[in-house]
Amino acid sequence: MSQRFKKGLISICRYQTTITPYSYIHDDFMSDISKEEIAKHLKNLGPFPTYSNILNPQHFYQNSVLLDYSKKSPHPVSLRQLAGYGNTLTKQKIINSANFVRIELPIRLAMRIRDLQTLPFGVVNNFHLAQIYESYYHSFNAFRKIPKIHTIEENKKFCETLSTLLDDHVFNLSHLMMGALEVAIAESLPQNELDQFMSSMLRSRISRRVIVEEHLSLSQNYNTKPYDKKPPHYLGEMFSDCNAAENFKQVCELVVKSLNFPIERMPNLEIDGDLDTNFQFMIPHLHYLLHELLRNSYEATIKNLATKTSKRLPNIKVTIINSPKEVSFRISDQGGGINHDKLKNIWSFGKSPKLARESLSNFHKIPGLQLYSNLKVTKAGSSIITPNTEKFIETNTSLGEKSSTLEGFMARSYEYKLGMGLPMCSVYADYWNGKLTMESLEGYGTDILLTLSKLGYHSNIIQLDRA
Q1: What are phi and psi of 330, to 5 degrees?
Q2: Under 8 Å CB-to-CB from 5, ≥6 apart: which residues?
Q3: What is the set of domains in the chain, with CATH numbers?
Q4: Angle, nearest 10°, between helix axes 353-365 and 172-186?
Q5: Averaged pLDDT for residues 289-312
Q6: How many CB atoms lie within 10 A of CB 416?
Q7: Any idea where the Branched-chain alpha-ketoacid dehydrogenase kinase/Pyruvate dehydrogenase kinase N-terminal domain is (predicted)?
């Protein structure tokens, strides 16, 4: 049996309930499984796996519709334009915004579906990436059929559908990351191609969710305070005024709580620089960035110094630098640094097969991880989105209460190292026209510099054009 075929069987077989979730990471796994057991899963190696509601023989004939959409260009829009649009809301503005989202989503989804279709078969047929393909096509198929919106009442129903979309597809991010790890294990794509694919998928995901959440935010504000004049640079409720020092303290509490280490010896967080720095940002994205960077520094410090002293470990130092157009954070630790040969790969999603197996095993240990799609289709293959009106009414009072995969990652226990934090943070920082760099002094510690552009000052930068 060839190694490539063996890897494919291992990837499929782990989903059988009689096999433990982590068996596939062991080299002797095949010796524990009978040939009869393996044979049950061979059909899932084909183009139409049994677990998919969408990938069926008829799907091929639907591609002509998709191709028409994938040839269209997404409408370029900046956050500054959104700010000006939401400054004073009217009924017509809300309706226009709804139709913009209605038209824009299928185009952006079609572009990413087409990217998935052009991947090598052994990549797109990966279980996790197939789940994403199904999820994207489900949304594309549903939203392209939504008729033009003419009234506020029609917009209310449309918002219910959008809210359901955000909740139903929240599992896509973990599937994308797990798919990248399995591709790395099988070495199905060169590292640079995997990085390009992941960056494109993540940026597009952020753009679509920002567009959706912005419309939900504007609609909510119009419903509660119609014609209310907003302050300059208003970007909707999804963007909050953030005090840099306070947000670092909040995130640090989460990090310290997740670490299994005596609190009396835990490194303190030392914050200096411009402590009064305030800027607008999306709280979930900001907290994820700060959380992953602080967590790395805390874990490295504890790992490197915990056995060398019985005293409190050296502080993690954060310096806040405020300028008119951007804000920067330098996070310094004494955690021993990183070997310079490894520095070039820390921003890559392409891990060695050994590290990828360890990370994938930790993914499966995260409580509540959703593996299978809950999306519904009719017998004829039409996608169904059933808005939960009651849930929409409860959660739409605050977009901060929407489900977030990033929050789930931050809440994970310290031993679940996913190996994706730095490349994920790099993409998120770059999306918001920022930058993430690291300097390491091997044997001593690291300095990480995170720079984020202030959203209201960049009128010519088109974040949402990253479709």
Answers
A1: -105, 120
A2: none
A3: 1-45 (no CATH), 54-238+367-403 (1.20.140.20), 240-351+412-467 (3.30.565.10)
A4: 150
A5: 94
A6: 16
A7: 76-237
Backbone φ, ψ for residue 376 (5° rounding): -120, 145
- The upper half-sphere exposure of residue 305, i.e. CA atoms within 13 Å in the direction of its Cβ, equals 25
Dihedral of CA atoms 345, 350, 352, 353 in degrees, nearest 10, equals 170
Name the residue with higher pLDDT: 221 or 248.
Answer: 248
DSSP string, 299-328: HHHHHHHTTT-SSPPPPEEEEEEE-SSEEE
The percent of residues above 90 in pLDDT, for the chain, comes to: 41
Looking up tokens 């959660």 gives: 395
Q: Are 345 and 190 in contact (CB under 8 A)?
A: no
Instruction: Kindly report the average pLDDT of the chain as a whole number.
Output: 80
pLDDT at residue 218 in the model = 87
CA distances from 77 to 74, 89, 231, 466 (A): 9, 18, 20, 10
Please list the residues that pair with 203 across neighbouring strands. Answer: none
- Token output for 231: 């302050």
**Is 61 within 8 Å of 54 (Cβ atoms)?**
no
The answer to whether 174 and 405 have CB atoms below 8 angstroms apart is yes
Residue 380 has pLDDT above 60, yes or no: no
Bridge partners of 448, per DSSP, are: 331, 438
Give CA–CA dist 300/440, Å, rounded: 12
Which helix (H) or strand (E) segment is 8 a member of? helix 3-13
pLDDT per residue over 136-192, tens digit each?
988 898 899 999 999 999 999 999 989 887 776 677 888 999 999 999 999 999 999
Ramachandran sector of residue 227 (left: φ over 0; alpha: ψ -120 to 50; beta: rest): left
Tell me which residue of 361, 460, 408, 445 sits closest to 171, measured CA to CA. Answer: 408
Place of tokens 């360890």: 358
Phi first, then psi: give them for residue 407, nearest 5 degrees. -65, -40
Q: Between 103 and 85, where is the model more confident?
A: 103
Instruction: Say how far apart CA 158 and CA 98 lie, in whole Å.
Output: 8
pLDDT digit string, tens, across residues 58-94: 565 567 888 888 888 888 777 666 656 666 788 998 9
Q: Which residues of 57-93 are buried (b: 16+ CB within 10 A; e: fewer)?
A: eebeeeeeebeebbeeebeebbbbebbebbeebeeee
**What pLDDT is stored for residue 167 in this prediction?**
73
How many beta carbons lie within 10 A of that of residue 407, not counting itself? 15
* pLDDT at residue 10 tops 60: no
The whole-angstrom separation of Cα 447 and Cα 250 is 21
